[in-house]
Amino acid sequence: MRDRQTLAPNLSPAGHGPSTEYSLAAYQYSLPPEKIAQTPVTPRDASRLMVVDSATTHRHHYFRDLPTLLRPGDLLVLNDTRVIPARLLGQKPSGAVVEVFLLEDRGNNQWLALVRPGRRLKPGATIHFGPNPNRPDLVAEVRSTDLDTNGRLLQFEPQGSESLFALIERLGEVPLPPYITDTTASPDQYQTVYAEAPGAVAAPTAGLHFTPELFERLDAIGVGRSRITLHVGVGTFRPVETENILDHKMHGEWIDVSPETVEKINATKAQGGRVIAVGTTVVRALEGAAQGGELQPCRGKVNLFIYPGYQYRVIDGLLTNFHLPGSSLLMLVSALVGRERLLALYGDAIEQDYRFYSFGDAMLILPEAVQGR
User: Fold this and answer.
1) Cα gap 283→206, rounded to integer Å
2) Does 178 map to a domain?
3) Are strands 151-158 and 110-116 parallel, antiparallel or unpaired?
4) Do 96 and 66 belong to one domain?
5) pTM
6) Which sign does the torsion angle of CA 200, 204, 209, 212 carry?
């Protein structure tokens, strides 16, 4: 552990001149490729943790130190979504191989999916899945093209007694992000230890650092836990491509914020505790459920885009990983501590050899560091 320190010099956006708060160029930074974590550390809580503890200072810890950094009465809110094997390999009737990446469950065995190669898969085309393409276990028909994602709406038809979800579990593969190119990680290492509700196509990665033993230590000091569900989809990982970030259209993702979680959050605040979101997906779920002015139970889709200037209604602090340049997740964290400061923190993380992205290290933003508090 290193001592408390002041901010490192500002990490300027790579290759760009001065930019406004709402310019995409203002959220770029240069990351050496070797800083991208290819495999998670073991045990999970041996990852490093940058602790942002005031408006001007931060410290370096390990994730296992979390019980010394939180207080009795604090509440951790977790996303209990489970990553499904969303990558499916199939064939067209001609025998050509087709890769399908499931994005979003639309109900009634329909899924929005990215399909490769997709150019020749027009509405009415079919894809067969299973070890015997002449007697497929599963058939998908292309119903339409989705202009927002350039994906396809697929109608799946199981060919036997197995349900669609059972077939996806049997035939699919858990997809890793494209920047993980050389890994020995198992599919279980891309799930949180508390993953329960199947439906995500990517992991809520801030939660990957927790272990059952760490939860026991947090329980022992009186740190509470509650859960929401947000099925991570294209809204989380779709890049921002508009030069003015205000023109970005956030894709909706399905959430479930239960009455029990709302009650627990309200009780925590009433007793002077702090609500710490574990990951940006929890932030979007809770803040999305509070858009009417106060936190309410919510079950359905939200497409809340959070960027600097947003006034947080629910969360007090955040546990999060280090995010890709130009991503909506980077903008969300910037809304907590400020864009320039966040880039400076990322600059110090690079200098201190932190590991970035899904299998990388984490950052804890305490309430004392949040702008406007």
Assistant:
1) 12
2) no
3) antiparallel
4) no
5) 0.90
6) negative
